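Components:
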Amino acid sequence: MSPSREAAEVVIELSGVRKVYRTGSIEFEALRGVDLDIRRGEYVAIMGPSGSGKSTLMNVLGCLDVVTSGTYRLAGSDVGDLDEAELARIRNREIGFVFQGFNLLPGLSAWRNVELPLIYAGVPKDERRERAAVALERVGLGDKLDNRPGELSGGQQQRVAVARALVGEPTMILADEPTGNLDSVSTVDVLNLFEELHAAGRTIVLITHESEVAEHAERVVRVRDGLIQTSEAVAA
Amino acid sequence: MNWTETLHTAWSAVRSHALRSLLTVLGILIGIAAVILTVGLGLGTQKDVASQIDSLGSNLLIVSPGSSTDSSGMRGGFGTATTLTLADAEALGSETSAPDIAAVAPEKTTSLALEANDTNWTTSVTGTTASWVDVRARELEVGSFFDEEDVASAARVVVLGSETATELFGRTNVVGQTVEIDGTPFEVVGVLASAGSDSSSNLDDIAVAPISTVANVLVGGTSASSVSTIYLQAASADQLAAAYQEAQAVLLNLHGITDADSADFSISSQEALVETATSIYQTLTILLTGIAALSLLVGGIGVMNIMLVSVTERTREIGLRKALGAPPWAIRRQFLTEAAILGLGGGILGALLGALGTLVLPALIGSSVVLSGAAVAGALGVSIAIGIVFGVYPATRAARLAPIDALRTE
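Structure:
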């Protein structure tokens, strides 16, 4: 779709990534040497059965967890040996999360939820309000600014979460089973939204175990037993 | 994340569990109220003692019947025995044996019914000598005090307290009127100016008559010559100690007692009264300070407990905020602010309760309580500090939560 894609820079670069969990004396190697490049503007689905290591991969990509060995470069900087505060800054600026369970704060209105990343980025109040409104408009909820999550449907809540992921202009939108809690109509709704965002040039990484969902991406990366098995373009 | 946002978020969290927050701060509330009352009571007692000492007169020694020591179970308790007599008072007035005692005012007090124009009023009738008005440092509003001649002749004259006059006549300008005391007519010769009340009696609700008249006409019988208290006035402050020695020597001699330890009377000075009042106050202070300290400790633990519950309940929220880019210090500050708000809330409510207490307590215990601005400000500072100190551990726990673990929590 986008002719310049081949030339686009690599924004996510995993090489030889291993992640070992220790529980007492038991060691479990969740990632056993993962190499993965994602270019700016790509729409990638990461697929795998449970226990394959895809959740660990998602945590590593999201800077929620640090690798045991190997390197992870995000937007040009090595995030391997950053401390908690620096990781927080990376999560704030470079990553927009969309979770399976929406993870909206129930006591806050839609726009207060959407402006959360901007609060931690130190954006002044008026600008936050403006940008949150624009992001909600973008996901088609321009009229629900003051509604609380409880007053919205599941699909609408997930769209609020997408608006929250968008609002900080991150390098990548990282969606973890975003349609797992949605009915089929809302699923289509949210997937269409991702496609629109992709068409507008956003980098999207979507983690799922459903192949129907993965088919919406340009490229599917299959993970099994802590290793990447295949990485192939989806036939359009 | 700036302070406005932090405060806003913390306040929302506190308000969303209004009842729980209120119960949490109860300990701090009680502690702060106790602090404010302790300080208020201290200042009030100081004020009371100062005014009582002034109202009593100056350079006074007070001789009471009975022993203040408890060396013998056979003697009556302090102030209850009738071991002091008019003869004692006369002996104490002697220039030769007690040169440092300038004036003597025995008091013989009894409670009797007064009647004037069909109005009845029961009050404390004090029989004394002409020097009483000077020794007790009283002023007359109208008329004059009775003189030595009236005492010598057991004249049926009376000086009323301002309140007693008002109760009987509805006014105080009643010189020349007649009052029947226990059926015997007395002429009112003066009315005392108001002096307020001390810890044990209302100084304005009294009737003062010559001691001879009270002893013979109103009391009579075997207790006619006994007196309840003898007030002695030293010629100057420097002579108080000498006057004390002389009074003790005279009375021991008169009562035929050789050992001062087994005296059947006791002599106290104003300083001793101050010490008594101060020691009562100190006991109260220790008690209230103990309550305050314990309550603040319990209150602080309460805050810590509920903050830990709050951190557990909001694990997902913390995880989410971290995923969205909240650094550990922002999370820590968030929870510390919440704890500080709880502490301050308890402090404000405690200060209100304390202020209310300073209004109510005087009526209950008869002692002045002063609301001190400095105590209120200090207490509020302390309450915030308690919130923060006991909030540190929960806030640190929240800040240390790993975002993946926190997000995984259902």
